[in-house]
DUF3185 domain-containing protein (Sulfuriferula multivorans), 70 residues
Amino acid sequence: MNAARILAIALIVAGVLALTYGGFSYTKETQEVKLGSFELSVKNKETVDIPIWAGVGAIAAGVLLLIVRK
């Protein structure tokens, strides 16, 4: 397998995952206050939405790369 084929398959898989899940979330921990041994931290849950056009575009680019590189 050459690099172009691996990249094309990765784009297709990423596009399918983007369409299936629509985004992902992560937890960001911030340190707010530290007074001596007392420490107060806040955890914020952030969500990143992936647009539908980005998923479709990734799939199309992967398929196009597979077809052109044959």
About this structure: The chain has a mean pLDDT of 90. The chain has two helices and two strands.
